[in-house]
Design goal:
single chain, 281 residues, alpha/beta, Rossmann fold, five-stranded mixed barrel, 9 strands, globular, binds hypoxanthine
Amino acid sequence: MPPASADAAALREAAARAREHLAIGDAPPELALVLGSGLGALAEEADDARTLETTELPGYPRSTVEGHAGRLVYGLLEGRPVLFVQGRAHLYEGHTPRELTFPVRLAHALGALRLLLTNAAGGIAERLTPGSLMLITDHLNFAFPGPLVQTNADAPNDALLTGSSPYDPDWADRAEALANELGIALERGVYVWTRGPSYETPAEIRMFSQLGADAVGMSTVPEALAAARLGMPVLGLSTITNRAAGLSAGALDHEEVLDVSAQVQGTLRRLVREIVRAGAS
Ligand code: HPA
């Protein structure tokens, strides 16, 4: 882990560059929207969009996974200023948990008030089949590292989360109501974070099922914790791309994840647009 002061300096520099390149000016993003596996295209619907390759930014974790672009896009969606985070890095790519929180800390530094996280996940609960959408109500951290651990120079480690779910229950209720209005099925569930990069074994999925997990994936938890720590309300939406290991015939592969996620994009896009349009109330 770099010393906290170096990390803070990288964040300041990255924020300054992003502010300038994305011409953020006086209209900070209302919302940062992290686009997971295969969902990146939503950013292309932004009006008046400005784009920045994240490789231009010091401290920004790089993703090497197919379907993860590594770009920030700033523009209007439903007339509201949104910072799109296209592509994300994962623990299994060798980043520290804290490095994975960098995009969220950057979004916060750029003025984003809320965080909407999307991801692809495997369905564990019977009701979650390929193509289902799940509203994340809470998570299990089975990658184990704590993304809020930091060296002590810039901020003490004492003000940790209070032991509540980082996902905002009121925002979740509103998102659910909007999904109902649109006739989009949205299931509530608990997301379990695994380190990857291998998919789980059938025995692990049986264990997760007994422990109360509804869906499994390799992201989202560090970002949710970081945002909650910064006081940003968080909403998490999973696209269920496959039944988790051992729950259906055949092997799991990333192509299938991308295919299913592409098929559900239209529905997810409609829902996300509506959530953005509704704003904070
Ligand atoms: N396991 C872990 N991550 C995933 C899965 C899965 O089954 N599907 C999509 N991301």
